[in-house]
């Protein structure tokens, strides 16, 4: 199979944005309300074990979401490469047909 290597900057088209948590939190995740302006909900504001559990679940959610998006992006790239290889094959066959046609005209 044909593998195309590209720089990381070109890996993500302009319309694709990956899910990620904002980095505006201060302190440990789930330890209470941060400086970002929003508290993140009553459980996270309370802090303690439930706040840390909720923060861990949220991190897990975004991690899984990002993995799904990357997998979908990878599959799309594979399908595009396969499509273009098929197009190349069909164009090469068309070129051969046209060359044969021209050879037959010259005879």
UniProtKB/TrEMBL annotation:
Belongs to the ATPase inhibitor family. Transmembrane segments: none annotated. It comes from the Eukaryota. Keywords: Coiled coil, Mitochondrion, Transit peptide. The keyword Ligase does not apply. Its main location: mitochondrion. Residues 25-46 are annotated as: Disordered. The gene is LOC108616517. It comes from Drosophila arizonae (Fruit fly). Residues 29-42 have a biased composition (Gly residues). InterPro entries: ATPase_inhibitor_mt. SUPFAM superfamilies: F1 ATPase inhibitor, IF1, C-terminal domain. It is found in: Mitochondrion. Pfam families: IATP. This is ATPase inhibitor A, mitochondrial.
